[in-house]
From TrEMBL:
Its main location: membrane. This is TIGR00659 family protein. PANTHER family: PLASTIDAL GLYCOLATE_GLYCERATE TRANSLOCATOR 1, CHLOROPLASTIC, PUTATIVE SEROTONIN TRANSPORTER. It is a multi-pass membrane protein. The keyword Cell membrane does not apply. It comes from Treponema porcinum. Keywords: Membrane, Transmembrane, Transmembrane helix. InterPro entries: CidB/LrgB.
Amino acid sequence: MTSIQQFFHNPVYFGVVLSLSTYGIGMLLKRKFKLALFNPLLISIFLTIAFLVVFRIDYKTYNEGARYISYLLTPSTVCLAVPLYEQFDLLKKNCRAVIIGIVSGVISSLTGIFLLALLFKMDHSAYVTLLPKSITTAIGIGVVQELEGYVPVTVTVIVITGVFGNIAAETVLRLFRITEPVAKGIAIGTSSHALGTAKAMELGDVEGAMSSLSIVVSGLLTVVGAAVWSCFI
């Protein structure tokens, strides 16, 4: 085994280096082309998969190092409280609209999954696996474990939802002529969690703050709602 191959199979360094390197490439491409399609996380996913396939490195070896990055999910989510604190007066002023918007978003998400489950005749495990698709991974994993769904599938669905929200957010807002910053933030955060919030923060401080709030509140509501909706199938 060559020194390069030894490095690839060193679980302490390899996963972290590959993850950060591919994400960095994604950031460079996004900065250069300035297109929503060049989402850094999406590019990182494709490049990482391609690298593992080309060099025939199994996922377990990669994840031995990459899993340490996952430990940052919870503290990074908590840090989203900072922009919310800075816009606290605006939150109090629009409290009723914010609550109605988040609750509506959570109910729409759960009901949509329920209808799709009926349409495609999913079994209970597959159904509950999709219920937390619009909340952050740190909360979604706990929900699915409690409901006895498929955790790897849930993580994949959550990432896809977030990436799609990040890419499509501006287009959807223009399509439905949503111009109010508070409404933008609530819509993005409730539907596409932290990855969508990254886009909301690009749109403005108010959008970012409201989206950050939506992540927390919609996550808590989904924990309760998923337990209720899981009884339907």
